[in-house]
Amino acid sequence: MTYNLVKGTTIDTKIKANLYLFPHQDDEAMVFEKLREDLKKGIKPLCLFLTTNSELKMAHRRQRESQNFLNSLGVANENIFFLGQEFQVFDNHLMYQLEKLESSIQSKFSNLTIDSVIAPAYEGGHHDHDTAFCLGYRLSQFYSARLFQYWCYNGADTKLRFFRVRKPILNPKTSQTKLIAIKRSLKDFLRTLLIPYFYPSQAKSWLGLYPDFIFNSFFRQIYLTEVFEFDLDKPPHSGVLLYERWRRTTYVTWKNCMLSYLKKNL
Fold first, then answer.
1. Where are the domains of the chain?
2. Which of 1-15, 99-113, 214-228, 233-247 has the lowest mean pLDDT?
3. What is the CATH number of domain 2-263?
């Protein structure tokens, strides 16, 4: 089924807030330049963390790490929401918990003008990321907002457990999109070098992410993608998706779950 996106509202030309969806604590590092850019323009970034760790001590540690990183960018604590902790939505299980999260988000920010929803890309890297993209679609419809996706990691054009970080997939068969370059400052480049410092609990994960994260951040343009149309009946790229290689779930299982969710309350 193909889903079309509406344009952002033109009733109020003053942008008041952008909604950021982060499936996990540390996903904000993949789009920190845009967060900083919003703050510089006076746009309020609302940062929503959608899952939590099942171990309480680790959950609190990861929350502190993300909070410290966002604070270093200038994001106020009042604009950081750990919904996964509030509703006990655990890592790798986001696709089964979307309805209560969607309802909560709609009620929390019903009095604000949301110009844009910024979600992880539909890229087949982590199924929680792809799930958050579908939630982003529903929220963009509710708020009549534009939908942007930021790129984390995916297995397009790779094999085994290898992946690419912050590398867009341009597939006109599955989506109609527009690449938008993120403006970066010298301070952003310096902050890129320090990213693992902010997430000591995730040192093992960043050991794998960091080389390609650094290469692409320094030697390639980083993009957001505005989404106008997408089709979940096709995977985001050919071949086996990364989360399938990692045996977390299958594309068919994920797709059926998302199609069921998206068809509700249309």
1. 2-263
2. 1-15
3. 3.40.50.10320
